[in-house]
Amino acid sequence: MREILVLGAGMVGISSALALQERGHSVTVVDRRGPGLETSYGNAGIIQSEAAEPYAIPYAAATLFRYAIGRTNDIIYNIPGLLRSTPALWPYFLASAPGRHARISQTYAKLTARSTHDHAPLIAAAGADDLVRRSGFYQFYRTPETFDAAAADADRLKKIYGVASTLLDTKALKTEEPALKTDIAGAVFWTSPWTVSDPGALTQAYAALFEARGGRIVKADVTTPMRENGSWRIENAGEYLTAEHLVVALGPWSPEYLKPLGYRIPMVRKRGYHGHFEMTEPLNRPLMDAANGVVLSNMRQGLRITTGAELTGPVAPANLVQLERGVAGARELVDIGAPIENSTWFGHRPCLPDMLPLVGSAPQHEGLWFNFGHGHQGFTLGPTTGSILADMIDGREDNNFALLKPENRRLRCRG
Ligand SMILES: Cc1cc2nc3c(=O)[nH]c(=O)nc-3n(C[C@H](O)[C@H](O)[C@H](O)COP(=O)(O)OP(=O)(O)OC[C@H]3O[C@@H](n4cnc5c(N)ncnc54)[C@H](O)[C@@H]3O)c2cc1C
């Protein structure tokens, strides 16, 4: 049994803690706010077993031009945000080249394919079944050209990775979703993903399970980690928590935290927003409106509309233009009532340039472990990379996931 400190109580940190606890270790989780209150709260709640390929930067010149002149709503940017992201965006662009992206996807597809399987025992043990729908989601298209391209891509994913989907025309989609009030060109119905009606509550249910099994969660804002006499030491209000192993699972805040130890880890922090709205006729499954880059999901809080990505500074004020455009587009499709809250949530997808989460031992520090950088699918992948990390700490290696390890990455993560 080892003493292990896990920093971060998002889906990734809590799932890592559960996996380590299951293997017999004594685990303490540290978070400045509490479980599931940041990125793992505000996302679209889809456990994306269909996401075989991570989001690449498109190589098509026409698409890049549309991004550059601001003609898209799925990605927007401002100049300071773009400049700040450039050191990570350039290697991200290089990793998006078709050949390299295909190699990265070989590993990525193995992660997402097991995601629902890895969540299943935790959902059952946490008694969180009421939060989970095992019935997929739709990605829909307004024009025949975009739908035909999406249908061809869904077929490609089925052939390469075995990702299940069916195609729906307007009539079929309206039968499934009576709330839909307009005709569309068609939808790809991804049948295997699960969707969650309150992602923060699922993370909290996992945290409660961890505590019920004897784990400890401490509220503390951690600063520079210290190593003394073979142990890691975290200061908490004048007291110290010490452990042989320290796992950094601080999501978008991880690179900043590791800087004092000498690690320079480039990350593109893709900001996304959500708002909650009243809706008289609920949707049965989430709808992804590809043209506007938004997802409409029925949540416990109301209809949640989440946006695509904004490249901006981490503390820049909220810019509601993407959400407003997305909501306007969504109103063409379904009747949407008044906003439920006055304030709008935003958070940042922690994306590493090679689109894979960073999981494994820190190159220069014994007993220091990384588990962050899950980008667009961290809510999906928490239990999966938590289990892979716990195996690594126990000295068990799975060659299928060798590409996740720091020593096999082209990231500049040297101490
Ligand atoms: C709009 C949007 C929609 C998304 N939709 C989906 C989706 O449908 N499916 C999916 O799989 N993923 C989705 N994602 C991505 C997903 O939400 C993230 O990848 C995931 O939540 C990251 O989890 P995490 O545990 O790494 O980080 P977080 O959940 O952010 O957890 C990090 C924790 O670290 C703590 N922390 C930070 N600094 C300190 C400090 N100094 N001291 C102590 N504690 C600290 C924070 O309080 C926080 O609790 C979406 C993201 C966004 C923004």
Which labels suit this protein?
alpha/beta; 12 helices; binds flavin-adenine dinucleotide; six-stranded mixed sheet; 34% helix; D-Amino Acid Oxidase, Chain A, domain 2; ten-stranded mixed sheet; 2 domains; FAD/NAD(P)-binding domain; 415 residues
Description:
The chain is of the alpha/beta class and 415 residues long. It has 2 domains: 3-42 and 201-264 and 354-408, FAD/NAD(P)-binding domain (3-Layer(bba) Sandwich); 56-99 and 130-196 and 267-351, D-Amino Acid Oxidase, Chain A, domain 2 (2-Layer Sandwich), CATH 3.30.9.10. Helices cover 34% and strands 24% of the residues. The chain contains 12 helices and 22 strands. The protein has helices at residues 11-22, 39-42, 61-68, 79-95, 98-113, 115-126, 144-161, 170-176, 199-212, 254-258, 321-331, 378-393; strands at residues 3-7, 26-31, 46-47, 75-77, 132-133, 137-141, 165-168, 186-190, 194-196, 216-219, 226-228, 231-236, 239-243, 245-248, 268-277, 287-289, 294-299, 302-306, 309-311, 345-351, 358-361, 368-372. Strands 4, 6, 7, 8, 15, 16, 17, 18, 19 and 20 form a 10-stranded mixed sheet that branches. Strands 10-2-1-14-22-21 form a 6-stranded mixed sheet, covered by helices on one side. β1, α1 (11-22) and β2 form a beta-alpha-beta unit. α6 (115-126) packs across α9 (199-212). The radius of gyration is 21 Å and the shape is globular. The protein starts with a strand and ends in a 22-residue tail after the last helix. Flavin-adenine dinucleotide is lined by residues 8-13, 30-33, 37-40, 42-46, 48, 221-222, 249-253, 257, 272, 274, 306, 347, 349-350, 372, 374-380.
